[in-house]
Amino acid sequence: MGRGFLASWAHRTGDIVAVLLAAVLMVVSGVVHLHLWDIAYRHVATLGPLFLVQTIAALVGAVVLAVTRLVIVMIGSALLMVGTMVGFVLADTVGIFGFTLPEVTSWAYLALGSELLCTAILVAVLVRHARSERPAAV
Predict the structure, then answer these.
(1) b/e per residue, 110-131, with b = 16+ CB within 10 A?
(2) What gap in Å lies between CA 127 and CA 119, rounded to an integer?
(3) What's the Cα-to-Cα distance from 5 to each of 1, 21, 33, rounded to whole Å?
(4) Helix/strand/coil for 99
(5) For FRET with 108, which of 7, 53, 125, 134 sits at 20 to 30 Å CA-CA?
(6) Beta-carbon neighbour count of residue 32 at 10 Å?
């Protein structure tokens, strides 16, 4: 149990904390989408149901991510967050499913910020994991 063990333990602990933070950020995104659906988007064809799909996927994904911390779940979670951000950008610019945002609220920015930070954290953990899995050069 030398220095290598402590460094490895700290590395694993840091990754666990990072993944749990990412799961919390996914919950924020899901709850904000549920709120936005409730106050406005439930009446928007196609987009309204997608807000509910995003809510359910984010909340279920957050639990699965926190419990399993599997690489495949991290990848799926990051892709969900990226897809959500792309949907926002499309809705705010060219429109999506015939809908363009009339205005962007602080709720939308809260969701966008949580999705961006969640994605950055998961990508950082995935990159660190990929680097640690490479065989050492001889």
Answers:
(1) ebbebbebbbebbeebeeeeee
(2) 12
(3) 5, 24, 42
(4) strand
(5) 125
(6) 24
Sign of CA dihedral 100, 49, 113, 78: negative
Distance CA 49, CA 52 (A): 5
Count CB atoms within 10 A of the CB of residue 105.
13
In angstroms, the CA 84 to CA 92 distance is 12
Of residues 95, 107, 82, 111, the one with CA closest to residue 44: 95
Helices (H), the chain: 3-39, 47-68, 71-92, 106-133
Among the listed residues 29, 50, 47, the one whose alpha carbon sits nearest the alpha carbon of residue 110: 29
Comparing CA positions, the residue from 26, 5, 18 lying closest to residue 129 is 18
Cα 105–chain centre separation: 20
Q: Rounded to two decimals, what is the model's pTM?
A: 0.88
CA distance 72 to 33: 24
pLDDT digits (tens, 9 = 90+) for 19-39: 999 999 999 999 999 999 999
Each residue's pLDDT tens digit, 60-88: 999 999 999 999 999 999 999 999 999 99
